[in-house]
Amino acid sequence: MKVLNIHKIRDRHFRDGNLKYEHIFNFIELFWGVPREKVNQATLDMEEVLTLLSIELEEDIPGRERLLQAYEEYLLLMALTFDKILYGEPCPHHRSIAQSLEPGDNIISFNYELLMDFALYKLQNLAWSGPLGMAMVFSANN
Q1: Same-domain status, 62 and 101
Q2: What would the pLDDT profile of 88-102 be if each residue is shown by its tens digit?
Q3: Other residues' Cβ atoms within 10 Å of the Cβ of residue 106
Q4: N or C terminus: which one in the chain shows less Cβ crowding within 10 Å?
Q5: Would 16 be classed as within a structural domain?
Q6: For residue 17, is it left (φ>0), alpha (ψ between -120 and 50) or beta?
Q7: Domain ranges, residue 61
């Protein structure tokens, strides 16, 4: 399974050695007070970062260009993250849940759960079901 090609935005590519992600790190430091060198120790919610970044993009006309650059860097980081988690074997915990499902089981998720989708995909249970979205088909053989 491969991620859609969202690794390039305009002339920027997440593997570009010149890309330092400085705008997104500056944004995080400005709003959360977390400097770049401590981001790996912080408990940031990246969904919250994207939400606040989107709000700021709508309201901050004078700083719009730097916010757009931060937004692009955020998208590139998410592409890199998706790229990393979709290689190799699924998370053993998610795989265990996927393997425990039986015919007639239902899962309701209110969040985009890429790791669970990947575990189900690797078990060949993942299918697209029109207006219902993702559907997992379980048989007695799985």
Answers
A1: no
A2: 788 888 889 888 887
A3: 7
A4: N
A5: yes
A6: alpha
A7: 8-85
Strands (DSSP E) found in 3-137: 8-9, 12-13, 126-129, 133-136
Cβ atoms of 106 and 53 closer than 8 Å: no
Give, as one character, the DSSP assignment of residue 135. E
> CA-CA distance, 24 to 53, in Å (whole number)?
9
Note whether 95 and 122 are within 8 A (CB): yes
Q: Is residue 107 domain-resident?
A: yes
Examine the domain organization and report whether 48 and 98 are in the same domain: no
Kindly state the tokens that stand for 17: 């050695």
What backbone phi and psi angles, to 5 degrees, belong to 12? -110, 140
- Given a contact cutoff of 8 angstroms between Cβ atoms, the answer to whether 127 and 137 are in contact is yes
Cα radius of gyration rounded to whole Å, the chain: 19
83 close to 105: Cβ distance less than 8 angstroms: no
Q: In this structure, are 79 and 13 located in the same domain?
A: yes
Summarised one tens digit per residue, pLDDT across range 67-123 is 999 998 888 888 777 777 777 788 888 889 888 887 777 777 666 677 777 777 777
- The number of distinct structural domains making up the chain is 2
